[in-house]
Amino acid sequence: MPEPENESAEQPRLTAPGQGARGGLLTQYLPILEWGRTYNGSVLTNDLMAAIIVTIMLIPQSLAYALLAGLPPVVGLYASILPLMAYAIFGTSRTLAVGPVAVVSLMTASAAGAIAAQGTAEYLEAAITLAALSGVMLAILGMLRLGFLANLLSHPVISGFITASGLLIATSQLKHILGVQAGGDNWPDMLGSLAGVVLNANPWTLAIGIPATLFLFWVRKGAKPALVAAGTPPRIADMVAKAGPVVAVAATIVIVMLLDLADKGVSIVGAIPKGLPPFALPSTDLSLIEQLWVPALLISIIGFVESVSVAQTLAAKRRQRIAPDQELIGLGASNIASAFSGGYPVTGGFARSAVNFDAGAETPAAGAFTAVGIALAALFLTPLLFNLPIATLAATIIVAVLSLVDLKTPRQLWNYSKADFAAHMATILITLLAGVELGVISGVAVGLLLYLWRASRPHAAIVGRVPDTEHFRNVERHDVFTVPHVLSIRIDESLTYLNARWLEEYVLERVADQAQVRHVILMCSAVNEIDASGLESLEAINHRMSDAGIGVHLSEVKGPVMDRLKRTEFLDELNGKVFLSQNRAFRELSRDDGSDTCEPYDMARGMI
Amino acid sequence: MPEPENESAEQPRLTAPGQGARGGLLTQYLPILEWGRTYNGSVLTNDLMAAIIVTIMLIPQSLAYALLAGLPPVVGLYASILPLMAYAIFGTSRTLAVGPVAVVSLMTASAAGAIAAQGTAEYLEAAITLAALSGVMLAILGMLRLGFLANLLSHPVISGFITASGLLIATSQLKHILGVQAGGDNWPDMLGSLAGVVLNANPWTLAIGIPATLFLFWVRKGAKPALVAAGTPPRIADMVAKAGPVVAVAATIVIVMLLDLADKGVSIVGAIPKGLPPFALPSTDLSLIEQLWVPALLISIIGFVESVSVAQTLAAKRRQRIAPDQELIGLGASNIASAFSGGYPVTGGFARSAVNFDAGAETPAAGAFTAVGIALAALFLTPLLFNLPIATLAATIIVAVLSLVDLKTPRQLWNYSKADFAAHMATILITLLAGVELGVISGVAVGLLLYLWRASRPHAAIVGRVPDTEHFRNVERHDVFTVPHVLSIRIDESLTYLNARWLEEYVLERVADQAQVRHVILMCSAVNEIDASGLESLEAINHRMSDAGIGVHLSEVKGPVMDRLKRTEFLDELNGKVFLSQNRAFRELSRDDGSDTCEPYDMARGMI
User: Fold this and answer.
1) pLDDT over threshold 70, residue B382
2) In this structure, are residues B206 and B179 in contact, taking their beta carbons and an 8 Å threshold?
3) Nearest residue on chain B to A503, judged by CA atoms?
4) B479 and A6 in contact by Cβ < 8 A?
5) Which residues in chain A have Cβ-Cβ distances shorter than 8 Å to B9?
6) Does the CA dihedral B93-B96-B101-B102 come out positive or negative?
7) How high is the pLDDT of residue B5?
8) Which of A172, B9, B134, B519 has the fewest Cβ atoms within 10 angstroms?
9) Which of B84, B93, B96 minimizes the C-alpha distance to B372?
10) How confident is residue B34, by pLDDT bands cut at 50, 70 and 90?
11) Which residue, among B157, B162, B417, would best test binding to A if mutated, counting the most A CBs under 10 Å from its CB?
């Protein structure tokens, strides 16, 4: 027979990147020190190649998301340079690409819009301050290892929020396709505002916007299959399809120039300041910070959740790992870098990260090279974008975000879990009707409320002995053997403050139901922990049962739980005993009362 | 051998009072219909006797707590009449006595003090509005069955809050003992305010206040033993000791009258309006409601928690039950009644309920009779209280609340649970330094944060087979048998959104650690529930493992959990199998890879 192996001997690398046991504290906080040591020429080639592809994709996307955030397009470029550098130094994902993303841009527009009108200096200042606040919050959460707070956003809440945000974003861009002015940061306001101006639509703008939207939809859904059918290799077809927005941008610029559409009322990007991002100082105005901290916190958490799930998905494909708490620091550094270079809140985006990954990026250096690419674009390409129609950017946004709208999830949730369905629908409805901030907060609140409700009603069962065995099972599900003066209760959860009061009520009610009970056995085989409130409830149960002349006994208490109970006076005060096994407890206590109840078991068989 | 019995056959009364299956909805909401049907002469005698004793105790207590709340003393009497009637109709405890209590009076003073100065009509209006808001909130919580929200207050937070409140209350009364004016609703403010005026103390007030305090301390601690030693029956000695405040009140009234102390600067109660409570309408001023709803909610929850624990303790002694959700309705009705009769927030108090219980009260009718007693006092006795020194009332408060200060708990918590100790100390410190409202909120927040932190890191273990058995145990604690290409992970908690992300990280890290892994078995024997987020994490794990060419298998999934999984596409997409037993899963999967790893087990023995 083989010797039993100890599996831990086979685990040479138990540390995640950024939690380096070898490199110590510095490597933990600066993951670049780990991957940087083994950087070489072939990795460099791959990273450079990926950077070029991502740069081409990022330029129109950055402009478009800045537009969505209500900011000058160049701010989108600014937010795509230094933040990428910062993430390359502090981030733990090898392939995550940070920058402006749709949902965070919408949240920025909503928060900054509450401070000032779009286009004013105060609006831009609010957006920069949001990035600074969000960066500081993320970094603090990371240093305090509080990443677990993101757990408060359950999957149904996140997917509801993303769906509703996608609808809000697409609606918000309709005005650019129509060439009208409209506002609002929730559906009723947006639709009301659009309804009032839809008849003023500019036909030339429509003539750009509608074909651009249809083209981008086709590129997204139909181009790749068509190219593959025509014999293009799938990998190339995929890249061409992803370049669709660049084609739309180039084509509409040319059309605007040829037909002089800017003079016919088509909004264009216009003059973009040429050069590198300016050094900016975020506001230290306390009243502004007081107004912005709640949206900044929500942006931080939503951004972190989105980024971490992208990073984890990509890391798993190559059996790499990320360190979520260090990711908070990486995203925090990115946002602080964004604020100091005149940008707005950024996070890791799915589309760009997937392109980066597919294009073969191997290290965060690819992100740094992309930053250089965007910086070159900011220095030299901006004059080319003068005639870019806003409607084209709106079309790229609409096409991108409508893929976020997920209509299958509600039905799946309805089938699987009504509570999760409720949290999902509440998030969608409140986000659509009352805006993004209230939507996220309500989703978290509904989810937590439902969780606490379930946690306060844990499972427990009155058990009896299965005949001819030493096993004890729920009396309601099995034909089991019990005696009237002994009540055996199996507790199926840890005892914490959320369910401690429930345990008191449960035991008291069960005892009140059965006048003959003289002993209560609490079977603790599933109790992993008893917190101070749980202990106090056990004490209360013990005192109340003692007053009523009833013994309280424990059985099958786990080792670590027993160790802690021994540090208290509870075991001395217990009006009963602690038994190693439920079977022994039941056998001993059911004998105790043989005189005044009928003798319901067969002593000779000795099984009880 | 006896037939196995089904215990449920022995449970004729599974319904709690106020949850009557017999009486239906009306009995559920009006428990008086249940106990009223069997009311008879002997019960009447007992209830009347208890009511007389409680009335005598309540008169000075009601005046004192109104003083603590910063209200005219007569308001304390008003709050002790209609609320008791309302509780008698709607409450489920047979012996709970509602009325003004110390902690709620302090919270009322803090909330109303933020609106207006003590003694003004606005202050009184705020207190009445607090009672109305709190009553409506309690009733709504009760009708929505949201009593579980009180669970958010863990025992360490409650005891920390009570200790700190006791210290704050005792400090707030020092000014009355000294005969000076002082303010503040936290320790730094109170002590600073007192320090500025302590030299102005009135010697005559001190001459009343200090002896009264010492006498009441002695009555509380020393009188009963002394009387028992002198041959008095313990029950009578106990009653005499409890009448101590009445003695102090009578004696100091006589002293004030004899020495004409009111003219020498001793504050007295003065003229109390004679008669029954006026009919009052709570404010419907929306801005006042907006300012008061948070403190009203905190008062409701603190009051409910205090009341329910008293009611449960007393009910258990007689094997009676209470229905917590109906208790919310009972307390809600009491507070609404208080508001409409010019009173302030009330709840079930420990001291008076214990006296009521000990004096032999059998039904809530005793409370109604007490209300009649207090009403008679309000009609005829108030002139007798004209010369009652405020210092005497302050002395009764100080002596009563110092017994709330609990110095043993911190040490016990430190020994038992550092997390609970942290929540306890945070509550004490923030309550003392920043007042009652922030204290409660911080306590709840710290407790929830620590809970969520633990919930996000549930227990799981890599397991291996114990040689010569079919049992699987933690590889870190036992010498067990494993094979390098099969990773068995036992999950020790239900999979909910709070720990779903953790599971993804845990599985990904364990797989990243072991390059040879080709199969992961998730052993689900302790998983009672998988919510939608948990399911999505399982799907993510499955996709990521599939991408890496690793099979994902489940073992020992519970019946109800499996039933729900079958309603999803997860089982179709699973890149592996579901095994009934972990042993079968391990046996089959470890064989799968016999060729390229060494054969570490003995096929002939057939144990794997």
Assistant:
1) yes
2) yes
3) B151
4) yes
5) none
6) negative
7) 36
8) B9
9) B84
10) confident
11) B417
B525 SS3 class: coil
pTM above 0.80, yes or no: no
- Asked if A531 lies within 8 A of B321 by C-beta distance, the reply is no
Q: Which of A482, A450, A447 is nearest to B6 (CA)?
A: A482
Of A241-255, A309-323, B254-268, which range is least confident?
A309-323
Instruction: Please tell me the predicted confidence (pLDDT) of residue B24.
Output: 66
Partner residue opposite B148 with nearest CB, options A7, A420, A452: A452
Min CA distance, B563 vs chain A (Å)? 10
Which chain A residues are closer than 8 Å to B481 by Cβ?
2, 4-5
Q: Return the closest-CA partner of residue B127 out of B74, B164, B176.
A: B74
pLDDT score, position B2: 38
Distance from CA of B290 to the nearest CA of A (A): 19
Contact A528 B492 (CB under 8 A): yes
> Which residues in B lie closer than 8 A to residue A416 (C-beta atoms)?
532, 535, 564, 567-568
pLDDT greater than 50 at residue A554: yes
A572 has a chain B CB within 8 A of its CB: no
Closest-CA residue to A55 (of A379, A308, A397): A379
The secondary structure element, H or E, covering residue B29 is: helix B24-29
Cα distance between residue A108 and residue B42, in whole Å = 72
Using a CB–CB cutoff of 8 Å, tell me whether B474 touches chain A: no
Which amino acid is present at B381? L
**DSSP string of B361-393?**
--STHHHHHHHHHHHHHHHHTGGGGTT-BHHHH
Chain B contacts in chain A segment 516-535 (CB below 8 A): 526, 528-529, 531-533, 535
Quickly list H helices, A37-186. 41-68, 73-78, 82-90, 102-113, 121-143, 155-178
**Helix A286-317 crosses helix A102-113 at what angle (to 10 degrees)?**
170
Q: What is the pLDDT of residues B136-181, one digit of tens each?
A: 999 999 998 888 887 888 888 888 988 998 899 899 899 999 999 8
Q: How far apart are the C-alpha atoms of A176 and A168, rounded to whole Å?
A: 14
Name chain A contacts of B537, Cβ cutoff 8 Å: 155
CB contact under 8 Å between B320 and A512, yes or no, is yes
| CB-CB under 8 Å, B154 with A532 | yes
Inter-chain contact B602–A1, Cβ cutoff 8 Å? yes
- Per-range mean pLDDT, top range of A477-481, B318-322, B340-344: B340-344
Residue A5: closest C-alpha in chain B? B481
**In this predicted model, what pLDDT tens digit does every residue of B456-474 receive, in sequence order?**
888 888 999 988 888 788 8
**Cα separation, B350 vs B409, whole angstroms:** 19
| A25 pLDDT above the threshold of 90 | no
Torsions phi, psi for A579 (to 5 deg): -110, 140
Residues of A in contact with B320 (CB under 8 A): 512
| Angle ∠(A66,A68,A73) on CA atoms, nearest 5 | 30
Flag if B508 and A321 touch (Cβ within 8 Å).
yes
Q: Contact A602/B2, CB-based, under 8 Å?
A: yes
Reference B299, options B437, B397, B401; nearest CA is B437
Pick the closest to residue B547 from A11, A16, A312, A97 (CA basis): A312
| Whole-angstrom distance, CA of residue B229 vs CA of residue B217 | 18
Render pLDDT for A149-186 as a digit per residue (tens, 0 to 9): 878 888 888 889 889 988 998 998 999 999 998 888 89
Residues 404-463 of A with CB under 8 A from B: 412-413, 415-417, 419-420, 424, 447, 451-454, 456-457, 459, 462
Nearest to A291 by CA among A67, A104, A103, A113: A113
